[in-house]
UniProtKB/TrEMBL annotation:
Example GO biological process: lipopolysaccharide core region biosynthetic process
Sorted UniProt keywords: Glycosyltransferase, Transferase
Classification via SUPFAM superfamilies: UDP-Glycosyltransferase/glycogen phosphorylase (SSF53756)
Pfam family, one: Glyco_transf_9
Source organism of the structure: Azospirillum doebereinerae
CDD domains referenced in this protein's UniProt entry, alphabetically: GT9_LPS_heptosyltransferase (cd03789)
Entries under InterPro entries matching the protein: Glyco_trans_9, LPS_LOS_Heptosyltrfase
GO MF, any single term: ADP-heptose-lipopolysaccharide heptosyltransferase activity
Protein name (database record): Glycosyltransferase family 9 protein
Length: 336
């Protein structure tokens, strides 16, 4: 029996981006017993991984005691393979036949490519999700029963500097779902973590009865189950953006001071919109004033609306082509 220890990120987005590598391991070693260690927030995303023997949510403790706890949990097992994306002492101090560690790429590459390099994989395996029946049932309870296509919006992020103004998200949603828009009459699901709900309220208020309020109501797995049913996701650079892309939902990510070349949504159905203000100028503003506001103001509503309509159009065209030739295997576009 092959035993694999997979240590991944505390951060939601980075943990999602590591799932391609984990998926590769489940296919390469189908009979393996897996232990996954990660932060408490992304932990639900791993509960249905094939071959999972143990899931260890690593709640941060003072004096790095969470690492000591992980070592105590793992040192009694002889691991055939340790994959340590945190480059930690634990990965070096538990018994293992083979151990590999994340290393910063020598040149700028996407995080998915950097993670895949741990095992020398090229092309890199795309992020994926293992959505279980429990999460699907939660989505059934949260979403309208008619299963009509809906727009999903992620108007918040873990840093205010990465948030496009809420009123622009509201106007975008109303435009996309208007009678002449690409999603006429569609409902709009608004997603945000519990502590970020207050910043999503302007969007909910503007949408009124059109809104499906998912703010603070889902864990990452339930959010993923909801997003698999969305016609389109538009959101800031965040963990939710990466969940949407990994779920296969057409995903449009908005970037101001962030790094889409490294952290953009990954996949054939993923696109990015950036602002007109150069990133170096935005980062200089942050250096001078860490609480600087308006860093996303350079992203025009028209540009986002146009990109959203184009992405929806491309997705529908591809789906029509596949439906027209059900006896053929559809070609999958490159992952970037």
């Amino acid at each position: 029996m092959t035993r694999i220890l997979f240590i991944t990120s505390n951060r939601l987005g980075d943990a999602v981006l590591s799932t391609g590598l984990l998926g590769h391991l489940t296919e390469r070693f189908p009979d393996a017993r897996l232990t996954v260690a990660c932060g408490p927030l992304p932990a639900p995303l791993f509960r249905a991984v094939p071959g999972l023997e143990r899931l260890i949510p690593m709640a941060k403790r003072s004096f790095a005691r969470h690492w000591l706890r992980l070592w105590l949990d793992c040192v009694g097992t002889r691991w055939d393979l340790v994959v340590d994306l945190r480059n930690s002492a634990v990965g070096r101090l538990v018994p293992a036949g083979r151990r590999v560690f994340h290393a910063k790429a020598a040149r700028p590459v996407h995080k998915v490519e950097e993670i895949a390099a741990v095992l020398g994989l090229s092309p890199p395996p795309a992020p994926r999700l293992w959505i279980d029946d429990r999460a699907r049932a939660e989505a059934d309870a949260l979403l309208p029963s008619d299963r009509a296509p809906f727009l999903a919006i992620g108007p918040t992020a873990n840093w205010l500097g990465k948030e496009w103004p809420a009123e622009r998200f509201a106007r975008l949603a109303l435009y996309l779902t208007a009678a002449g828009g690409p999603l006429p009459g569609a409902r709009v699901a608004v997603l945000a973590a519990g502590p970020e709900r207050v910043r999503a309220l302007p969007v909910l208020d503007a949408l009124g009865d059109r809104a499906i309020d998912l703010t603070g109501r889902t864990d990452p797995m339930a959010a993923a189950a909801c997003l698999t049913r969305a016609a389109l996701y538009v959101g800031n650079d965040s963990g939710l953006m990466h969940i949407a892309a990994a779920a296969g939902t057409p995903t449009l990510g908005l970037f101001g001071p962030g790094f889409p070349e490294t952290y953009g949504p990954w996949g054939a159905r993923a696109r990015v919109v950036t602002g007109t203000t150069p990133r170096d100028a935005l980062l200089e503003r942050v250096r001078v004033d860490p609480d600087a506001r308006g860093l996303m103001d350079g992203i025009a509503e028209d540009a986002v609306a146009e990109a959203a309509a184009e992405l929806l159009g491309e997705t529908r065209k591809n789906c029509d082509q596949i439906a027209a030739k059900p006896w053929e295997t559809a070609e999958i576009p490159p992952s970037r």
